[in-house]
Amino acid sequence: MAEVVKMPKMSDTMTEGVIAKWHKKVGDKVKSGDVLAEIETDKATMDFESYQDGVLLYIGMEEGKAAPVDAVIAVLGKEGEDYKTALEGASAPAAAPVTEEKAAVVPAAEAPAAPKVDLSSIPATVIRMPALSDTMTEGVINKWNFKVGDKVKSDDSLADVETDKATMEVVGYEAGTLLYIGPKEGEAAPVNGIIAIVGKEGTDITPLLQDTGAAAPSAAPAAAESTPAAASAAPTEEEKEISHSDGRVKASPLARKIAKDKGIDINAVKGTAEGGRIVKKDIEDFKPGAAAPAASAPAESASAPSAAPAKAAAAPIVLPTFTGEEKFTERPVTQMRKAISRRLSDSLFTAPHFYVTMSIDMDQAIAARNKINEIAPVKISFNDFVVKACAIALRQHPAINSSFLGEKIRTNEHVHIGVAVAVDEGLLVPVVKFADGKSLSHISVEVKELAGKSKAKKLQPAEMEGSTFTISNLGMFGVDEFTAIINTPNACILAVSGIQAVPVVKNGAVVPGNVMKVTLSADHRVVDGAAAAAYLQTLKQLLEEPVRLLI
Known about the structure:
There is one protein chain. This protein is of the alpha+beta class. Helix content is 29%, strand content 27%. It folds into four domains: 1-91, CATH 2.40.50.100; 114-220, CATH 2.40.50.100; 249-292, E3-binding domain (Dihydrolipoamide Transferase); 335-550, Chloramphenicol Acetyltransferase (2-Layer Sandwich). The strands form eight sheets. A six-stranded mixed sheet has the order 19-28-27-26-22-25. Strand 4 (35-40) and strand 5 (45-49) form a beta hairpin.
């Protein structure tokens, strides 16, 4: 039976993909694992592999064209098989033609029949995409650990699911045979969407699928139905060769449109696609050649003689002609960036921030760190000193270790320090719990481990929850001073800058010194200016006399 191939969701932010290149053509035999096409997503151009064997019966999207996620891009089946039935099934147009061609007699007779199936009597259980974090709206199937027909136990890990924060295991909690797999590896499913069905071998699971997801594919029948039609007409437009004096040029409609918008003569562009066809990338990479300057040169030389006699004495300054091109790139907002945007916007525009900055003499901290690292089992960083000092200072100033909860203010008696970690996609804040009771070596090991998990996208939700105070350190970038937005529900966040070698006054004399500036951002609904200043004063004392950290 012919099976449709849909545009896969290759990243958590992908809404559509562009067919960069087809590696197979209609009539070719395809094996499972063969690369069907190269698909350009919002993050990269990736190989798209086939998940089944068969013959490529239909291509619904030409090279250079974009298609939304889950749109039909091809059909695989047996040689000579009628693929139109598969296309119609994928676009779910069954209801519309019946109402157009004949009276709605068949739907009226069939509609009451569906609810009569008692789903509770079916010996199978639907496995849905779980909400693995508080910000998760969908998950991407990173890897299936079983295939349809395999026996699974209640504690087996069915799949690895990639969320907006980490890759985690999904356990089925049911024993039986894996009867159905929904999204393939690399595809996304919304939270609570069906990803698998486990039950008794041979069970008819059609009612379960129809009950929960039959209406979803029919949401856009017109778009899906029009895709084959557009595709059948498009190749003649796409492959149409236009005659020019200097040869025959083939270009995609998108490339022609971009060239027209930029005022680029498409005859001057060299195509890099198959057969010399010009695609979007060729237009974007095109640099005007020497033709334009050469053409403008005669005009300049023609006007020069008339101007020269008038001002022969004054030698005019002739500037070279420079031709520039306006360019920009755009990219969709990632799920992580959306979460950062939402949370920090809510914080900045809800909590009235105020900022207090203080300079700290780090000479003693530098000397202490050098001595500690001579005997410590792990290397201690200045950030470890800051984490430890902040935690101890919070015990003396509980108002800073608080949260605003609307009708009440919570003062935390425990100290959990969130440490902001920059990753490629944005920012994560793992939490060092009970930091006030841990040694510098313990804090150093834990921070390094959490930072490594953050960058590897292995951080678990529990490791990012429960902070009572946050530190954002940009000292490693040599930053002189900055402010940070409060990580709610915390009442404060400390922005830590780099240690600068500057002249300082000690005992009435100007001497070399090492100064670090810190800025406390505080929620004025919870903390007042005097309390913020007192906290920084304690922090300053702890860092300027590090022996206090050991008491």
